[in-house]
Design brief:
The mean pLDDT is about 95. The chain has about 190 residues and is of the alpha+beta class. Helices cover about 50% and strands about 25% of the residues. It has a domain of about 110 residues: Jelly Rolls (Sandwich), CATH 2.60.120. The two termini are about 25 Å apart. The protein is built from nine helices and eight strands. The strands form two sheets. It has a four-stranded antiparallel beta sheet. It has a four-stranded antiparallel beta sheet with strand order 2-7-4-5. InterPro entries: cNMP-bd_dom, cNMP-bd_dom_sf, RmlC-like_jellyroll. This is Cyclic nucleotide-binding domain-containing protein.
């Protein structure tokens, strides 16, 4: 799915607004394992994922807690750090070699002033992120480990081949041993 089609899932922007948004995007490449953002750093760029898989996580009590995975054509960002220009509380890293296009916070604000449709697009995307977080919270607290695993497999089956299973287990709040059992027994 191209970025234009992806963005139109949230708000039906015109081709002209899409070009206004993307005409000044710049590209950064990251190697597997490279950190994009670390705790204490303010995320100043919003990334559009062209290639690769990224992961946000934090450490607590010597344990990694995976919060999210991003991959094409999604956005890659620590939302509260970027939106409020405050220090991040967690990491954003690349699980694979990645190519990301980006726009800075200040550039995006200028675009909001130029185009109400671009501003509306990002409001709708923010609403979708909030709804996704609520759904994830509900899944983690109301579904069995097998139901969480199946829901993940329906949403992002390709990640089973691209992401180390210990990270997916963490994301789903499933013990790695139980995840391995589910991976080997639950088929679609």
């Amino acid at each position: 799915m191209e970025h234009y089609d992806f963005l139109r899932l949230f708000h039906d922007i015109t081709q002209a607004d899409y070009e206004l948004l993307t005409q000044n995007l710049r590209t950064k490449t990251y190697k597997k394992g490279e950190l994009i953002t670390v705790p204490g750093q303010i995320q100043r760029e919003l990334y559009f994922v062209k290639t690769g898989v990224q992961m946000s996580f934090f450490d607590s009590d010597n344990k990694m807690h995976v919060m999210a995975f991003t991959y094409p054509p999604n956005l890659c960002v620590i939302p509260e750090s970027f939106s409020f220009q405050i220090p991040s509380k967690y990491f954003l890293t690349c699980l694979t070699n990645s190519e990301l296009e980006y726009i800075t916070y200040d550039e995006l604000l200028r675009l909001f002033n130029q185009s109400q449709q671009i501003e509306r697009l990002f409001r709708r995307m923010t609403e979708a992120v909030l709804a996704g977080l609520i759904n994830r919270h509900i899944e983690l607290h109301s579904m069995s480990i097998e139901e969480r695993y199946k829901a993940f497999c329906k949403r992002s089956p390709h990640l089973l081949q691209l992401v180390p299973h210990k990270y997916i287990a963490s994301y789903l709040n499933i013990d790695p041993t139980n995840f391995s059992k589910l991976f080997n027994t639950v088929k679609f």
